[in-house]
């Protein structure tokens, strides 16, 4: 179990190093068995600009189980809306070492449909 987490973190570090060279905002995704989280991060200033997760009160009223593909799609739409309000249109997608599959893919596709380019 520990080796799987270390492998994921190693993959995440490699991806973040490439994103750092681009010098643009980063859409970071974290998933657990029960929830999914998305953040838009400004690495130059070490600040989280906006975030969305299945733990938010408005989201919990609409989505019962935060560990589903439907929940990930909703979070993707929500992070896209929040980024549009801030005027952010282009980001780099940081999948945090997770495979681009299932909930991570659903969140990314939903964010793209919401108007974020990456």
Question: Could you explain how this protein is built, in words?
Answer:
The chain has about 120 residues and is an alpha+beta fold. It has one domain: Nucleotidyltransferase, domain 5, CATH 3.30.420. The protein contains four helices and four strands; from the N terminus they run αβββααβα. The protein has helices at about 1-20, 55-60, 70-85, 105-115; strands at about 25-30, 35-40, 45-55, 90-95. Strands 3-2-1-4 form a four-stranded mixed sheet. A hairpin with a 4-residue loop joins strand 2 (about 35-40) and strand 3 (about 45-55). Helix 3 (about 70-85) packs parallel to helix 4 (about 105-115).
Topology overview:
Elements: H1 2-22, E1 26-31, E2 36-42, E3 47-53, H2 57-62, H3 69-86, E4 92-94, H4 103-113
Output the strand order for the largest sheet.
3-2-1-4
Number of strands: 4
Written as H for each helix and E for each strand, in order along the chain, the element string is HEEEHHEH
Query: How many structural domains are formed by the residues?
Result: 1
CATH class: Alpha Beta
* Radius of gyration from CA coordinates: 14 Å
CATH topological fold name = Nucleotidyltransferase, domain 5
pLDDT below 50 for ≥5 consecutive residues: which ranges?
Answer: none
DSSP helix fraction: 40-55%
The shape, in one word, is globular
Query: Any idea what the CATH architecture is?
Result: 2-Layer Sandwich
The N- and C-terminal alpha carbons lie at a distance of 32 Å
Strand content: 15-25%
Overall mean pLDDT = 95
Q: What structural category do the secondary elements indicate?
A: alpha+beta
Sketch the major β-sheet: 4 strands, mixed
Enumerate how many helices there are, as a single number.
Answer: 4
